[in-house]
């Protein structure tokens, strides 16, 4: 734990709202009743839920710039920095494994991938890249990865099938996981946090680093906003048109998906930067700032609290089932009842986040 110093307030707000959205979509009141856009798309396409993870990785990239820019140029031995980066990545990965094993801790049925695991790899890859390259080189690395991934998935036939496939479980990404990914996979024969798709997910972090370096540039604040918004529109449009031939797909983390979601992330950051850091209007963004100040801690706490709010049974039903069924009985539409309970759960997680923020306690892995 350490005191907070010199944070970009809009970045905390974006990080926090993203974590709140992650809790909301991960924990609906009922899996049976969920608004369409609050579900992950089954395969190709883009919903609100599909935006959450890539925006958080974008924020990771921005945060790397603000965390390491001074130390990159002050002559501190790089060995010390690398050691801290590797240790932090291992800590995030270890917490992800802890959440995967809860509550039974059955090591015979273990999954080695997940949201925090991907964050760990993206943080490691982006931080090392940032310390050794300038922004132009980072942009080129990102572009090469996206193009190479696109060519691999659209030109290389899936072994054993003999033709190019982009459907679930039979594409090159799924085949690679069956050969090299240990443990169980989320969907049985394939996993959305796969080995190969980790590479384009690192590009989501790289786009965040580019945005972070823009925010640290000598441009005026208004110029920074203009460039962020322009880059956001251009990236989203390019991703859309690329998606006509290489579909926007979160499960494969396609190149078009990276550009579309990074474009949205740029637009959100630009809007928040203008509102919060330029105009000083923080009132509406305070919940996001509070969540964002301890984002990973809140994410972990959400999984732990869910053991009670979703797992514990009272009579025949769990607490969420009692609540949703009660709201439906009162005449509330099922999907809305499910959403209201999800928002209630987000509010429950907000209470400890608020206490930590008030006491100026910021938990870092």
TrEMBL record:
Identification of the protein by name: Heparan-alpha-glucosaminide N-acetyltransferase catalytic domain-containing protein
Domain spans labelled Heparan-alpha-glucosaminide N-acetyltransferase catalytic: 7-218
Superkingdom: Bacteria
Transmembrane segments: 12-29, 51-69, 81-103, 115-132, 139-156, 195-215, 227-246, 252-276, 288-312, 332-357
InterPro entries: HGSNAT_cat (IPR012429)
PANTHER family, A to Z: LD22376P
Pfam family for this entry, one: HGSNAT_cat
Organism name: Runella slithyformis (strain ATCC 29530 / DSM 19594 / LMG 11500 / NCIMB 11436 / LSU 4)
Keyword line: Membrane, Transmembrane, Transmembrane helix
């Amino acid at each position: 734990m350490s005191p907070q110093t010199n944070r970009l307030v809009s970045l905390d707000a974006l990080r926090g709202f993203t974590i709140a959205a992650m809790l909301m979509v991960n924990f609906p009141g009922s899996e049976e009743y969920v608004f369409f856009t609050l579900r992950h798309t089954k395969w190709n396409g883009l919903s609100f839920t599909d935006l959450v993870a890539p925006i958080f990785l974008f924020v990771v990239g921005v945060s790397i710039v603000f965390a390491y820019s001074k130390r990159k140029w002050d002559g501190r031995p790089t060995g010390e920095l690398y050691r801290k980066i590797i240790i932090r990545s291992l800590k995030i990965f270890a917490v992800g494994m802890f959440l995967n094993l809860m509550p039974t801790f059955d090591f015979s049925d273990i999954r080695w991938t997940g949201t925090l695991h991907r964050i760990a790899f993206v943080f490691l890859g982006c931080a090392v890249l940032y310390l050794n390259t300038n922004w132009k080189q980072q942009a080129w690395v990102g572009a090469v990865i996206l193009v190479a991934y696109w060519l691999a998935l659209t030109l290389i036939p899936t072994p054993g099938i003999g033709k190019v496939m982009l459907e679930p479980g039979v594409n090159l990404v799924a085949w690679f996981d069956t050969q090299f990914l240990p443990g169980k996979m989320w969907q049985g024969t394939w996993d959305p946090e796969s080995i190969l798709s980790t590479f384009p997910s690192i590009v989501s972090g790289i786009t965040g680093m580019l945005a972070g370096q823009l925010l640290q540039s000598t441009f005026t604040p208004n110029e920074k906003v203009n460039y962020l918004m322009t880059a956001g529109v251009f990236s989203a449009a390019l991703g859309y048109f690329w998606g006509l031939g290489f579909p926007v797909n979160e499960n494969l983390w396609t190149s078009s998906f990276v550009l579309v979601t990074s474009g949205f992330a740029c637009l959100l950051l630009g809007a928040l930067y203008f509102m919060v850091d330029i105009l000083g209007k923080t009132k509406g963004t305070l919940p996001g700032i509070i969540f964002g100040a301890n984002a990973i801690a809140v994410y972990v706490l959400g999984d732990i609290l869910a053991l009670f709010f979703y797992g514990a049974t009272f009579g025949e039903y769990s607490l969420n089932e009692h609540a949703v069924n009660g709201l439906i009985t009162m005449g509330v539409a099922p999907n809305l009842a499910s959403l209201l309970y999800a928002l209630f759960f987000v509010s429950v997680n907000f209470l400890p986040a608020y206490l930590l923020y008030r006491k100026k306690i910021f938990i870092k892995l």
